[in-house]
Design brief:
CATH architecture of the largest domain: Up-down Bundle
CATH superfamily of the largest domain: MFS general substrate transporter like domains
Distance between the termini: 41 Å
Number of strands: 0
Helix content: over 70%
Shape: globular
Radius of gyration: 21 Å
CATH topology of the largest domain: Growth Hormone, Chain: A
């Protein structure tokens, strides 16, 4: 069916997929600028603000792979339409939320819908664009839309909050979601995988328990007490679930992800890099918006304008990083990106209410440069050396790691930077309280540099080759056309 589609129809399919990823990615950043307004309007606590972000990203991360495999089995267009419906419904309910608890629940519903859009849209693109060159161009456009949506989030969110209400940030999704649904019905053909992977409900459940209980312990630990039975129990549950997950996946005939692939240093390194870089991003957005609208007394719109240098620089740097990876290797982009994250964060470790605006903007610029440079090579590094049948799973793990990083960034930074009494107690002193958070983000940047150097070393590439050879001996086809990153270019 895909071969018979004309170029116009293929572009319409791509536009449909881009609309879906636009709203899913937009909601990763647009909500942060509205947190102070949500706090005032719904009398939300610190943990409720954190859950407003993490309920969305955690559900996305937890269901990403199972949604993709379900779509391969029952039909990609069917699951894609269901995802658009749930995401749009969740957005509508978020805009009507009468309380912080209801908002958190509706954000989780958004996450369920969003998990059906991200991986499924990529599968639709891969199925529609059969020519390698056209597919590469389509994926490049897809990636640019992701960067654009994340860059526009703080600015659009600030304007909507200042001009209308925080509830308006969810209204944006409704017309886009409806348009994407109509275009899906009209232009996207149904498709399924010839040999869909089995659904692994136990493995999926263990992933959700491990992630959810860990983030719950971090977010609620400041209020409940780090030694309280509830927090210790959640932390223990997370470790037990992770241990059981590894044992289960080693024995399952078609696991969510084969644990043996983590023997590939580029693969495991890319996962850790994604977690570190997106922990920095999640923490940056959380700290910055509370600081700008708290200690600085800026409006939501002004706050969005202040962060524009970060967003714009990230948007410009991402395609440049992609070209650098293609021409040389992933190492330069990872090192430059990690250095930018670290330098931008360390400049804010002495943050005060009276910090000069040029210093703030310079720090935001460096952070945006770092984030823009580090994001593109993550997937490239993850799939280096992976067998062809597992390349998609490797990319999905990288995407899941990104979302886990955002969740951890918001959870950890919120737990250490804001006094346990809540946001209200931090008025006039939030800048000083944020210093440990900025040191954490600095450490994330340094970690990206170190991991980038290790995961692109000659030794690391040897481990990737060994994993690929082992996979081939088990009957999988080696991944062709993936250029392993050589150290030093």
């Amino acid at each position: 069916m895909t071969e018979r589609q004309g170029p116009v129809r293929r572009r319409l399919v791509l536009a449909t997929c881009c609309l879906s990823i636009f709203i899913v990615s937009l909601d990763n950043t647009i909500v942060n600028v509205a947190l102070p307004s949500i706090r005032r309007d719904l009398d939300a606590s610190v943990s409720e603000l954190q859950w407003t972000i993490d309920a969305y990203t955690l559900v996305l991360a937890g269901l990403l792979m199972v949604s993709g495999s379900t779509a391969d089995r029952v039909g990609r267009r069917k699951i894609f339409r269901l995802g658009l419906t749930l995401f749009s419904l969740g957005s509508l309910l978020c805009s009507l939320a009468p309380s912080a608890a209801a908002l958190v629940a509706f954000r989780a519903l958004q996450g369920v819908g969003g998990s059906m859009l991200n991986p499924v849209a990529m599968s639709i693109i891969r199925n529609t664009f059969t020519d390698a060159r056209e597919r590469a161009q389509a994926i490049g456009i897809w990636g640019a839309v992701v960067g654009l949506s994340m860059a526009l989030g703080p600015l659009v969110g600030g304007l909507l909050v200042a001009g209308i209400s925080w509830r308006a940030i969810f209204w944006v999704n409704l017309p886009v979601g409806v348009l994407a649904f109509v275009m899906t019905q009209r232009f996207v053909p149904e498709s399924r995988a010839p040999k869909p992977r089995r659904i692994d409900p136990l493995g999926q459940g263990l992933v959700i328990v491990a992630l959810g209980s860990l983030v719950y312990a971090i977010i609620e630990g400041a209020d409940a007490g780090w030694g309280s039975p509830r927090i210790v129990g959640c932390a223990t549950l997370s470790m037990v679930a992770l241990t059981l997950l590894v044992r289960h996946e080693r024995r399952h005939p078609e696991p969510l992800i084969d644990p043996r692939f983590f023997r590939s240093v580029p693969f495991s390194g890319a996962s850790l890099i994604a977690i570190a870089a997106f922990t920095a991003l999640g923490g940056f957005l959380f700290l910055t918006n509370l600081y700008l609208q708290g200690d600085r007394g800026l409006s939501a719109a002004e706050s969005g304008l202040y962060t524009l240098p970060m967003a714009a620089t990230a948007f410009v740097a991402a395609p440049l990083s992609g070209r650098l990876v293609g021409r040389r290797s992933a190492r330069p982009s990872l090192v430059i990106g990690g250095a930018g994250l670290a330098l931008g964060s360390v400049m804010l470790t002495g943050l005060a209410a009276t910090t000069a605006t040029p210093l703030l903007l310079a720090a935001y610029f460096l952070f945006g440069l770092g984030f823009g440079m580090v994001n593109p090579p993550i997937t490239n590094t993850a799939v280096s050396g992976m067998p062809q049948e597992q390349a998609g799973v490797a990319a999905a793990v990288a995407s899941t790691s990104r979302l886990v990083g955002i969740s951890l960034g918001v959870a950890i930074v919120g737990a250490i930077a804001v006094p346990a009494a809540g946001v209200a107690a931090a008025h006039g002193g939030f800048a000083a309280a944020s210093h440990p958070g900025w040191w954490l983000l600095t450490a994330c940047g340094v970690g990206v540099v170190a991991l980038g150097l290790v995961s692109t070393s000659a030794w690391a590439l040897q481990t990737a080759s060994a994993v690929a050879a082992g996979a081939t001996s088990r009957g999988w086809v080696p991944l062709r056309g993936t250029r392993l990153s050589e150290p030093g270019g």
